[in-house]
């Protein structure tokens, strides 16, 4: 069906093909099903309503409906998510629907390969004149990602061929040669997409083009200044731009203030930053570029030790949808966009491919189960774009149609979750995330090596017990490895043979935070271990001033919050003593989650007036905590992640 | 020397004439001297440098130096403060300098009475066309206050005559008659000035004009809308105006969103609000208008129970130099302009004249000793315009020349402090503030009633002992009354006769929070009492979220803060246990203040990373507190008013 090369295994760990990962997980599968059954069809319906698809049929100068400059990226994210679902859930109707949309894209592509309806029919004279704001390469990047996903899921080269033509055209327009534009997009995205295209086509030139965009970024003279001077008109989003009268801030907003290798801090628009850093990690890996990897590590350290919420949310300010200053992590007015947490998951997964270290795995998991997942209601139909860590009430998720980017991004992520959970090489399967399902692992280039089949079973994150059954064993010694989160004690690892023989595997958590069990497996062997997901406390760096005298409760990867629904209003009156025992409970109102309960105190404030001579008085009070991702599923009441602590 | 009537005593308590109050106070006198010896001469020097005085000599169309629309108000505040000092400290040189400036003002006045250099020489065509922004009546108001002060201090009618002419002209321009402007100034000030003019001239028409301005304010159709439509150009400060595209917010900024009697909340620009409310209180008193008084009381309740800092500072936001929402009192980014706290003192004094209630006296004192006084360095030469309640360092007072309004306003207040401290009637002297000095109290209209002389002595606020010696006794039974602050226990009151006989006066604190000792006094009688100024704790209304798990230490009227200079950096790491004993200390570095010390704890945060599994650990630490007004006199270190409390 295809003559292109899909390198499932190389020496560098990589995700398994999605078709080889059949997720069957009590926690995630229902959410993935909602994406497949509701989100993806609804998004297609939206295209019909809004005109995304009709616009693709426009003739030159046809402007009704007037396409938006982002529309191709919306369509692309839908194609990508739909393709991901097709990989594991064949659906002829969806397959045909995808073919139809791809036909439209083929028809919209110009003879030179260019593909962007707005700049084809509305402003053809302005093609590639406003890289800073107009998102053309951003849209191209999403279409490339869609093409790669569609090809990998279906084997069809239809969209891939379109995007190869477009990418080749972009390669002629951009570069350091005479007459070429020596610039890059204001919204990073094409860089990581080109790496995917290079991988799936085996063509070095796409890596080179990605590298060009990455290396040009932030060089002086600043491209966006040159571009603006040449164009002579304000950028598309000039009026919305934060600090357009402060060039330095605008450059930081775009991560274009310095060459990427010299950027010491995570700055600017947080989604853009994540896409850039993910692409930097991609290139560091593909080109074995250690100084680029060092830049990634420096940015990671900065982000995760100074600018990340305890939920893995990032980008604290709505003003720039991004970063502000170190340790500026306001809770109630946190921005912490769902898409930015998704971007952090994307970056972390790429770092893990290069450098298996639980520093990345733990934060990928943290962001996924908290900062990302809170974006989605329990029933999967409403969404948070912004994720505060405290609410005085009145905050609710919105229906799909209110927000443009987060639901499609959630759809992309959830329908490709297997790519984040598991990495494989011909010698080792690494489990980064404890998601149940069956993995078919090709055993390398030798035709007859066949595949191994490993089934992972757990009730994670509620329960820490994980079993991995080797349903079909590799023909060679093979390592099964898994992350031991920093919050867990070292687990006892056992291998249970098909006949019931139990072996305690003498192994230690490695310096990378992973346990590896290397052996010649027998069909039916089961590896079991138990992570300690019992409830625990976390405290903050004292430089986080909103966190003084506060504590966060977590259980496994889940950060917990207190809600008005369980605790009444006035959550800031509750205090959790340092020594209060944390016990597990089941809540009638949230039957699917494990809650945590403790005996705390509720403060009463006798007296009157703004300032009082009467001291607050403590009364015993039960405090009930639920996972942060569960909040606002029972009405828009108060919520608090950082509980007030009595040191006792 | 004058044929005008100065009503020293009426049935309604009023301040004594400044000439009758000789302050000799260890706490206040040095500060008042700095005003007299440095601030007032320096301000005059500034006028020379900047051109305020030269501009008063401008011929029509003469524009160098170009006068600013505010300049007359600067000159007016200087005249007022200088006159106040002349009342008690005769100074022929200053007297002559005042005469010179008043000559210039006389020369600058137009034949019709109008007096405002900018609108005389720069934009004569725009006189009274931009009441919202151009501050014309505001400047007129300050000149009227200056004229009254100059007359009362010197008996000279020179400036008073000028301002009577101007006020009469204003009375022809503004009103409800045909051809008159039915409007009011965007910055309240003329209203309270006209009440003073009415009092000193005995002319009802100035009260009527003040009443017109007050009653028109906020009526529909909104005057500023009509004015803008008529003018057809943006207002003077249109580009600076917060929310000029939100008419409701702009109206609230100007307290012009509703008729004043229907305004339930203190809103908008805080200095403007205070001047309005002070004028409302003035009119309520002069016109015995109980519904206007009710409006004042409602606004007072709202302000002091929802929008006032524990220092008496008000107006939490720099955006509008004013109020935001209830309980929104950020500490580090507090605005709390010095002038706004001065305005609160002004309003409180007016409320006390109508309704002697320590609710007003306590807050007048609180604002004076904290929110106002922090505006001034110990040496009286540098100033805070903005008064945060917490600082991470780097915040310092500025020299006079950096700020326009607070130093002159401080100069006015300090040089007339006696007016705020003492109220008198023919039957009673009331001490609102415990400021040492000698008071000469006219004994009413009977020519031969003469005057009483009372000398007040104390080392307040450091010490709570106050003595009042009746140096010359009234010829009739007379009440000496004083406020017992709500924070003090009820004092024992003793009268010591000239021969040493001691009488415990059997008296109780009245419902108004004042003690009154009514008797026939003998020359040399001394009334003594001791207020309890020992250090105490205060806690906040739980709706003030920045105050949870926090405590403020106060001592007498002084709010205390912790500073880096005494406690090292990292002030938010200190905890004050609920039961820690508060002891008094003397600090070598601040010899003039009484400090407070307690054994608290300093938190250590073991572990690494933004979020940690290691709990903070408490170590014993001495915590040293100094008066809030003293902060930032030893370098721009960290400071914190709301200390973190361990409930213990």
What does this structure look like?
The structure is a homodimer of 648-residue chains. With 648 residues, chain A is α+β, with helices and mostly antiparallel strands. Helix content of chain A is 35%, strand content 20%. Chain A has three domains: 14-419, Glycosyltransferase (Alpha/alpha barrel), CATH 1.50.10; 426-530, Immunoglobulin-like; 536-646, no CATH class. In chain A, the strands form four sheets. The first copy, chain A, has a seven-stranded antiparallel beta sheet, with no helix packed on it. In chain A, α8 (190-201) packs parallel to α12 (270-286), α12 (270-286) packs parallel to α14 (338-354) and α14 (338-354) packs antiparallel against α15. Chain A starts with 13 loop residues before the first strand and ends with a strand. The model of chain A is unreliable at 1-9 (pLDDT under 50). β16 of chain A pairs antiparallel with β22 (611-612) of chain B, so a sheet runs across the interface.
Key structural traits:
648 residues; alpha+beta; Glycosyltransferase; Immunoglobulin-like; globular
